[in-house]
Amino acid sequence: LALAREELAGISERSTKAYFGGGGQKTSSGLTAVDKTDRLTFAGEATSALASANLSLARKFPAGLTNGSSKGYWAGGFTGAFSSVVTTVDKLAFASDTTAALGSAALTAARLGSFSGSDGLTKGYWAGGQNGTSVTTIDRMPFATETTSAITPIISRTQGSSGSDGNKLLM
Questions:
Q1: Is the distance from CB of 34 to CB of 25 less than 8 angstroms?
Q2: φ and ψ at 83, to 5 degrees?
Q3: Global model pTM greater than 0.85
Q4: Which residues lie below 8 Å from residue 107, measured CB to CB, with a gap of 6+?
Q5: What are phi and psi of 104, to 5 degrees?
Q6: From start to end of the chain, where are the E strands?
Q7: What is the mean pLDDT of the chain?
Q8: How confident is the model at residue 153 (pLDDT cuts 50, 70, 90)?
Q9: What whole-number distance in Å separates Cα of residue 32 and Cα of residue 17?
Q10: Using CA atoms, how far apart are residues 162 and 45, in angstroms rounded to an integer?
Q11: What gap in Å lies between CA 167 and CA 145, rounded to an integer?
């Protein structure tokens, strides 16, 4: 990576490139949130900083998901202390390598470190996380409308990893 950091999120358009965004950089005053994004091209296995894809807001522990082919999303995270957890969602257009805030997709609850996954075609989900307390909400975002809403099931876990095979989200 162009900038050493931790607590970042990754997304991929599956065939040619992946992106690593946000996170925290160690400084003398602690872990400072960054907005930086790096792109990894699969063919050459090379990474480079990509300013056009930087997150709209510097933050640590965002979650990332993708529709599998044309766009990806960075959601949530925190800008500093736990008191600054956000609902921000950014959209990354793979064709142009550009990121912009997507107000219509804001999470229904501020959270960091949430689970995420998609069916790779029609919708994505952000689940759980924390904001000083556990977040039990699961948010759904249809890719066609890019509007987020909470769904009825809740989750009781706040940390771990997640993945999707296109049919189900495993947490």
A1: yes
A2: -75, -5
A3: yes
A4: 75, 76, 87, 88, 89, 126, 139, 148
A5: -70, -15
A6: 9-12, 17-21, 24-27, 30-33, 37-41, 46-49, 63-66, 71-75, 89-93, 98-101, 115-118, 123-127, 138-142, 149-150, 163-164, 169-170
A7: 89
A8: confident
A9: 27
A10: 24
A11: 20
In angstroms, the CA 76 to CA 86 distance is 5
Phi-psi region of 143 (alpha: psi -120 to 50; beta: other; left: phi over 0): alpha
pLDDT digits (tens, 9 = 90+) for 70-121: 999 999 999 986 679 999 999 999 999 999 999 999 999 999 999 898 988 9
Tell how far CA 154 is from the center of its chain: 20
37-64, pLDDT tens digit by residue? 999 999 999 999 999 999 999 999 999 9
Residue among 131, 29, 114 at smallest CA distance from 65:
114
Q: Which residues contact 28 (CB under 8 A, 6 or more apart)?
A: none
For residue 139, list its beta bridge partners.
Answer: 126, 150
**What does 64-94 look like in DSSP terms, one character per residue?**
EEE-SSSEEEEE--BSSSGGGB---EEEEET
Exposure string of 94-103, with b = 16+ CB inside 10 Å and e = fewer, is: beeeebeebe
